[in-house]
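Students often ask why we bother encoding 3D structure as a string. The short answer is that it lets us treat folding as translation between two languages. Here is a chain of 355 residues written in the first language.
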Amino acid sequence: MSNGNGGYERDSGTESEARRRFLKLAGVTGAAGIVGSNGMLSALAQEGDDEGVEIDDLQGQLPIEDRYLRIAVLATAKAAQLHQNYYGEIGQAEEKDPQNLLTQVDTEAETLIRDTIREELGDDFEDENHALYGEEQGGQLEGGYVWIIDPLDGTTNFVKGIPHFGVNLAVTKDGELHAGVMYYSLWDEVYVAVRDEGAYKFRSDGYDLVAEDSEPAELSVSDTEAVEDSFHGVGFYSRATADDFDYMGLWRYLFANTQGTRLLGAAAPDLAFVAEGVFDTVSVKDLKPVDVAPEALIVREAGGTVTDFEGNTDLDSILEGNVVASNGELHDDFFDLLEDSGKDWLTRPIDTLER
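And here it is in the second language, the structure alphabet:
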């Protein structure tokens, strides 16, 4: 419910439940040691029971059996529970730039994810040449396995009390996307994919990674073929985009001549919605590898197409952060419109614009 200040307020029962679920996943003892005496996780641990909580055996719960996917889902689930505990209670954020905010939740969620990956892999972290690259703590994008981490995609939404944000985690293997997870935090909905194994969505409950009453559903993009029947998501994340007249003109055209466009403020769930068939296309510019890596795999495994704005499909191009994701049917139409568009598409009467 609203707290009267533009934010979101949970009742005490919901808050207690969220905290209890977090402690179930993290383990009270483990959570206390992750951040330190002044961190949020330590505060959570101090409120919990004295004894640590064992994490149930996760084998067989996920729709795809893959060690790295299991670790990724576990790590994102822990971060999402941290989001749930502090949603509506974070009123201040550091400004990295005018459209890019940072909160303590971002930094501590990333620490939690990193520690989970290292703990789950054990000696294999070094033996298999794993590397970590995160939104807040950086790292390297080279290694046998690279974990690409966005601990809170949609920070501004999180701070403003808009319930649309998530956790992003991708794993590359030998330079190719291997596994991807987008955990839609407040809704406990999890989008996953493994290369050549398909894409799925399921609901978690904080105790089992897949809730007992949740049947994983295989994801599939929409079959929309006509532009006039299509529905689009867009992300404008930097001032530079405002001067991209071709791109802005395209969106004016789509706004007027389709079922609609939406600017929701979080690239990760927006892109995942393409895999689910909610959006027919989503395009984003000026983002980072962490914002788009999991969804590139999830959308492709759901039957869609993901390229950069030059039509390139290789991982290096995608990680530049300028991405078009579509159901495949409309990909060429999107680029045809973009090629036709220009500054005049922002000023001419909409009825005069022709494809």
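Translate back mentally: The mean pLDDT is 83. Keep this in mind for the problem set.
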